[in-house]
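Quality-control log, excerpt.
Job 1 of 2 completed; input and output follow.
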Amino acid sequence: MAHARVWIFAAQSTRVDDFGRGRAPSGLRAVTRAASLGDCSSCPHPCVIERDRFGASSCARCRDTWSATHSGGVVLAARSRRPVGVDVEAPRSRPAAFRFLTRVTGASIVSIEQWTQAEAIWKASGQAHRRPRPGELVMPESYANGWNSTADSAWRVFTHREPGLVWSVAVPNGGRPALEVRDLRGAPAP
């Protein structure tokens, strides 16, 4: 069984880039903050986060994998003993992105929920450093809130929609997955 944990933080965007836009919060900062809130799987100390050359995060002690994402006013961090990917988006239409994803997956992609599913699956597969090629990304046959399996049964993806926010987390298929969510938007931001 795949078990995943997700932490949701409010994002602070007090800094701006050279064009006056709010800078995106650091995914690594969110992962580090979430890791400090719980024990490492192999010892009573917090995880020690390390990143590979493509930006994927894991614990140097227990080897749990971590994923992070941000959109607007939130940042999410996800953790699992198995590969994990997470994505969050503000609900909006993205016609060019949906056309690209439809071409790559062969599925009809028409919603931001499906987009977050695709992003989470692609991150969990360890390929987030590059764009998928046709046939490499398999989607669930239909979208529904909650857990969905990809058409090839390789991945399970959980999708949640709330006002102003859609997020998905993906883990390898392997029985009934468990999900623990800690909404810390009222706590200090990472």
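Job 2 of 2 completed; input and output follow.
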Amino acid sequence: MAMAAADIERLIKERFPDALVSIDDLAGDGDHYAATVVSEAFRGKSRVEQHKMVYDALGGQVGADLHALALKTQVPG
């Protein structure tokens, strides 16, 4: 089952209310997305830690309803 971009954004923003989130459906199939997430919560964290934080926010959907997510994270500024 596919996952809507709006649902991905909602889950991320629930965990990171200050986040600027951009989602692109890479294949038009609702299964392959690229996301950019900008949040102060990432400050001082390694890239791996930042990505884990986002995957945790998605609650296990990656690999299930969400087949693939290319992720870019950064702090504001």
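Post-run check on job 2. The longest strand covers residues 32-38.
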